[in-house]
Amino acid sequence: MTEPFTHPAEHLVDEASWARAVVRGFLQASGRIAGPDDRDPRSLSQAFAVSADEVTRLLKDPLQAPRPLNESDLIRKRIDQRVAASREAGMRLRLSELVNTFGLDELSRLVLTLALVGEIDDAVRRLYSYAWNDFSRKTPSIEFLLGLLQPSMMGKILNIEAFFGASPLVAAGLFRRFDSHTEGPFLAREVRLAPSVTAFALGGEELDPALTLCARVKSADYSLEPLVLPPQVFNRMLRSLSTLGRPGAAVIVITGSSGNGKSAIVQRTIPRYIEVDVASLMRPASEAENRISSLRRDARLLRVPLVVDLAEADDDPNLTPYHRLLARTIDEHPHGAIITARDQASWFVGLLAQAVVHELMLPVKAEREVIWHRALNQVGLAATPVMLEAAARFPLSGGSIERAAQTAVAQLQVDGNSSPKSSHPHEILEACRAQLAPRLSGVASRVVTTLSWNDLVLPEKEGGNLLEIVAYARNRSRVFDDWGFGRLLPYGRGLSVLFSGPPGTGKTMAAGIVGGELGMDVFRVDLSRMVSKYIGETEKNLAKVFDEAGKSQSILLFDEADSLFAKRTGVNSAVDRYANLEVNYLLQRVEDFDGVTILTTNFEGSIDEAFRRRIKFRVVFPAPDHTMRAELWRKMIPAEALRSGELDFAALAHDYELSGGHIKNATLRAAFSAAERKGGIAMHDLRRAARLESEKLGKIVRVADDVDTQEAS
Q: Who has the most CB within 10 Å: 537, 567, 583, 636?
């Protein structure tokens, strides 16, 4: 009965013995047997100090000793029998496993073994050098490896298929890629095993050096805190993930905002995997094909699933042949794959033959409270009422909550606060706002205001509408999540508001005040950057605005909205058709948007009826009456401003019919005039500024010029 190997290394030692026998047969067949005293001064081997004496020592026996003609075949048969016995005994032999993984035929197996032994045994390497009689090379050629197995030209031609592109050795990428476009004889090309293949055969598990910056082998981290997810969502994902690592495993797509737990799910559930960064994998493009080939080989070699991260490539619209090659690699990988992305990443997922999609939603308020409690404990902050406020106000992902807690502690240390255990609402809330900072700088500008409700002058009814808007936005989580209204309203949960009225009546200012009251950033969309003459570009820009605002929970302000939300027209040309498509797209995004959208317009009648129907709140900003104008004049002059004489705001309101924006301009103009003459703001400064502002608007001034002159004197 054949004995199994006592250790996997013994298998490789026997394979080295077989390789020596193969070299011996090659030397005998080529007539290069020489006695220890024979010298050939023309031989390159003499010049490079590999003599027949050394070859004799390396082969263990004198070359002249009689050897069986089929010595290598006998050794090969004995090794194969011991391999079979070892497999039955449950011993893992890496070289045998490698052959089975890639389905190598007999010829490919022998070529692979000869190349491997040359990589790991210096004695065999020197024998190869003596046999090919060319010491300018360090690696064997195709012709030499084929000649070791069958020295005749007929044998080489019959066996050359082992190096064709469709052969298992080449198709699987087990050899380092030899350039098929290199000039020179095909058989003269040098070949070498990929480093990761050699490492695997020796018992290691490492990736090809070409993958250093874009992939790494990772193991599960079961010490991570349990994920805060609805049980039905988590259980469904576990059923899908449990198929990974098995033959025929599925491709699983996990989408969700950054920090929503995509990576944590993988780390807690997959024992071993290869994590891939697509953005790094594809750059530079000249290396992409080689890297993908190495990734395909090493993932099969290690028998682990792929985890492909599209985080930095979510917005990449430029599909290349290499993206398609990667998709095919994922589809064909026998041990399955996970794709993580911020959204559906349809630009890439659409290339896959099949995929099971799981979407991770942002945690609801109750889940955020649990995450906040855990995050604050980890950084040494006490769980206080501000935690509940942050959980209710800021729809952050789990990762963002953890980063916010760490940011708050860092800020406390910068400020020199030595008692991080106490309550610090300001730092925590500011850290939350920082986590929601959007990437909207290219198409929108932030509206910053220091004003409050006290600075806003509106009729009581309209002021009440603004307070109701704030109450709606502030309590959405409670109504939709805690009270169950979200289950009855699968869409249209966002808050859309229309501010209408003449210019200068405070529409934009009110939007900033609403944002400040809610603790939300307000971004005014730059329509000049949004609208494009190229088909589809406007929709693309709008998509970015809504997506980023949704992720950051910012308020979107469309100033002068009638230019973008105008009524649809009859289709008389291609221009009309595409203009209507833009409006239709806006309708869809406004309805799907789960945040706050504020539209301002001077011409409410020009807004499309479908938009007005979807508006939840409408606030009219009327031109101010006499009483409101007097209040505006009073509030527009700060208490710190230097005054000269009594200021009659009622008279100004009576004599000049200006809106709030124009009154602001007039007071500022008067202030600079007074500052220039080194005095305080006087009534004649205000009258003059009001008159100039009225004339700019083309209005008739009710008072004569001599009134201003009289007051100035």
A: 636
